[in-house]
Design a protein that fits this description.
- This protein is an alpha/beta fold.
- The protein has 3 domains: 131 residues, Response regulator (Rossmann fold, 3-Layer(aba) Sandwich), CATH 3.40.50.2300; 79 residues, Winged helix-like DNA-binding domain superfamily/Winged helix DNA-binding domain (Arc Repressor Mutant, subunit A); 131 residues, Response regulator (Rossmann fold).
- It is 48% helix and 13% strand.
- Helix 7 packs across helix 10, helix 8 packs across helix 9 and helix 10 crosses helix 15.
- The radius of gyration is 23 Å and the shape is globular.
- 37% of the residues are buried.
Length: 366
Amino acid sequence: MPIRVYLMEARTALSAGLQTWLKELVEISLVGRTEDPERAPAEVERLRANVVVVDENLGWKALDEVLPQLGRLASRPRILVIAGHGGSESARNAARAGALGYLPANTSLAALSEALLTVASGRLAFLPEHMPELLGAGPTSLGMENEPLGQLTGRELEIFRLTGEGLEAKEIGRRLTISGRTVDVHRANIRNKLNISGTHELMRYAMQVAEIERLAAQLATFCHEQRPLLMVEDDDVDVLSVKRALRDLRAEPRVVAVGDGEKALAHLRSMGNPRPFLILLDINMPRMNGAEFLAELRRDPALAAIPVAVLTSSPHEADKVRMYSLGVTGYFIKPTTSRDYVQLFRDLAQYWGRNARPAGASLAAA
């Protein structure tokens, strides 16, 4: 079933472009649009929209009122804001108002499509550079000590985090051995400090912060991996793109690049080389291609357990079937921009973070 999208537009060039793009996406059905934010909640409910795409040019004075209303609808539509002004402050405004995603105005059609699918599934679609601003400076474990969460006392922060787990006041009270009434008093203080109007809005915001912190932790663990990343790739431009993306993420893994499968096997079988935590594998290469390399790797008991993700320009279903049958743990199409390469590694970090691994394995180990 296509995703039912409703567009809140501001009669700008951005909105005109969004209309065109939304109509082009085969998995999207544009069911309605309006320039009047006050009309949006009733129309979104009547049209049973799954996702509301919002042009930020409508202005946050109006959006701060209407987006929380959308979040209270029985249909629970997801919200994706497209930048009118850009910057992490605007991304934070979007998250505070209940949006699950925020994209720059110059986003690509492919990125918009991916963000719509991500938001529709209930996951976050924010850029990596927006994460610190979304987190505010509250999570002391990340070295952030300013507003907004930095205003909370230790007990309030504890209750805020348990609220983010979806717990009701009585459940939090039992967890902390205090009364539910005391929890309600703390929650009222939290709402006042964070300028949040109701318990429902507090719970939604706390759950968003918990999700953002989880994603940030996954990315941090991936980026702090000390073992090398092995690229089996014969295109120097792609190797440079991967190195640049990891540098932009301040990631620590050293990239070791070899140009074909034979060289990769020789590198892996050399006693002096440390075992990589991940292999990024191209399909089409000289001498020994990706499929041949992978088949040989899986036959070698000493190497068979190394996780391999395909990074290729081939979108063909036959290639996907063949590589998965040989034991890859992921299949990714090569991005076309530096921003998309950064997003690729953010996706990889989330994938490894969600992946079920043997006991004792590190985040990126399997």
